[in-house]
Amino acid sequence: MDIKQIQELIKFVSRSGVNEVAIEQENFKITIKTNQAPTIVQATVPAQIAPAIAPSAAAPLPVAPTEIKGSAPVDDTSKYVTIKSPMIGTFYRSASPDKPFFVNVGDEVSVGKVICIIEAMKLFNEIESEVSGRIVKVLVDNASPVEYDQPLFLVEPI
């Protein structure tokens, strides 16, 4: 495992909400633990790689503010139905960057219509609407990490 892979792993763990990940290979062992605080990295590696790990541990720290930003409160949501994330992962509004969004504010959706994709562990999961209605608000930015049960959309039922 090289430094770039370690950095990617640290970023993924900090975004996903997983509390601990441990990987063991022939001459390499790494454990990454989180607890709603900065990521802690413990590694046992050959001497030529060890000095480069400490600076990469600081890289995930800026991730926490984006999670807070995505869950901003909305005024009087009592008449709306909230569609929540069924899993931890990365939220995407379209199938690829060059494709249009699945839904936009004002669009009408029906039960079973694909409204977004959540990527988890390189698997892209289509999320379908649980309710028929009109999209009132998109609560998460495109390509942002989401937690389990995090509100994604507000829908006005029809």
Write the layout of secondary structure elements.
Layout lengths: L2 H14 L3 E6 L2 E6 L6 E5 L5 H7 L6 H7 L11 E4 L4 E4 L15 E2 L4 E7 L2 E6 L4 E6 L5 E3 L4 E7 L1
Antiparallel strand pairs: 1-2, 2-3, 4-11, 5-7, 5-10, 6-9, 7-8, 9-11
Explain what the structure shows.
The chain is an alpha+beta fold and 158 residues long. It is built from 3 helices and 11 strands; from the N terminus they run H-E-E-E-H-H-E-E-E-E-E-E-E-E. The chain has helices spanning 3-16, 50-56, 63-69; strands at 20-25, 28-33, 40-44, 81-84, 89-92, 108-109, 114-120, 123-128, 133-138, 144-146, 151-157.
Order of helices and strands: HEEEHHEEEEEEEE
Q: What characteristic shape results from the CA principal axes?
A: elongated
* Uncertain spans: 49-72
Please indicate the percent range of residues in DSSP E strands (runs of 2 or more): 35-45%
Counting structural domains, the number is: 2
By CATH reckoning, the class of the largest domain would read: Mainly Beta
CA(first)-CA(last) distance: 52 Å
Query: How are the strands of the largest sheet arranged?
Result: 4-11-9-6
Radius of gyration: 19 Å
Major sheet summary line: 4 strands, antiparallel
Average pLDDT metric: 77
Beta-strand segment tally:
11
Helices and strands: which structural class?
A: alpha+beta
Q: By CATH's scheme, which homologous superfamily of the largest domain applies? A: RNA polymerase II/Efflux pump adaptor protein, barrel-sandwich hybrid domain
CATH topology name of the largest domain, in short, is: OB fold (Dihydrolipoamide Acetyltransferase, E2P)
What is the helical fraction, as a range of percent?
10-25%
* Named CATH architecture of the largest domain: Beta Barrel
Number of helices: 3
